[in-house]
């Protein structure tokens, strides 16, 4: 499950609250939800392709796997374009 948030939790208390309130969330999203809401307002469809670099609530940037997440998103994009 993906947790939609207005801002990334920046302190330990916010992170702890979100993890307790949404224990099944494995990722956080801000931008895609906004785009999807704007598209829905105009009757447009949206496909979101994401690469997940870290567990929801993890603020240790050194532990994030950004390269792997980008490769995964790129592979999903290529698959989506091949089908479209």
Structure overview:
It is a single chain. This protein has 84 residues and is mainly α. Helix content is 46%, strand content 7%. It is built from three helices and two strands. The chain has helices at 12-21, 31-41, 66-83, and strands at residues 2-4, 27-29. A two-stranded parallel ribbon has the order 1-2. Strand 1 (2-4), helix 1 and strand 2 (27-29) form a beta-alpha-beta unit. The chain is flat and about 40 Å long. The two termini are 25 Å apart. The model has no long low-confidence stretch (mean pLDDT 85).
How are the SSEs placed, and which strands pair?
Blueprint: E1 2-4, H1 12-21, E2 27-29, H2 31-41, H3 66-83
Parallel strand pairs: 1-2
How would you describe this structure in keywords?
single chain, mainly alpha, two-stranded parallel ribbon, 2 strands
Low-confidence stretches: none
Mean pLDDT: 85
- Global geometry: flat
Instruction: Name the helix and strand elements from N-terminus to C-terminus, one letter apiece.
Output: EHEHH
Number of helical elements:
3
The structural class is mainly alpha
Characterize the main sheet: 2 strands, parallel
Radius of gyration: 15 Å
Order of strands across the biggest sheet? 1-2
Please tally the β strands and state the result. Answer: 2
Range of strand content: 5-15%
Tell me the distance between the termini: 25 Å
Helix content: 40-55%
Brief summary of the model shown:
The protein is mainly α and 84 residues long. The chain has helices at 12-21, 31-41, 66-83, and strands at 2-4, 27-29.
């Amino acid at each position: 499950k993906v947790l939609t948030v207005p801002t990334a939790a920046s302190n330990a208390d916010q992170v702890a609250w979100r993890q307790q309130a949404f224990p099944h969330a494995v990722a956080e999203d801000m931008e895609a939800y906004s785009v999807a809401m704007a598209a829905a307002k105009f009757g447009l469809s949206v496909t979101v392709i994401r690469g997940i670099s870290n567990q929801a609530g993890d603020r240790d940037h050194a532990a994030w796997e950004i390269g792997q997440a980008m490769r995964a998103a790129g592979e999903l994009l290529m698959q989506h374009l091949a089908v479209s």
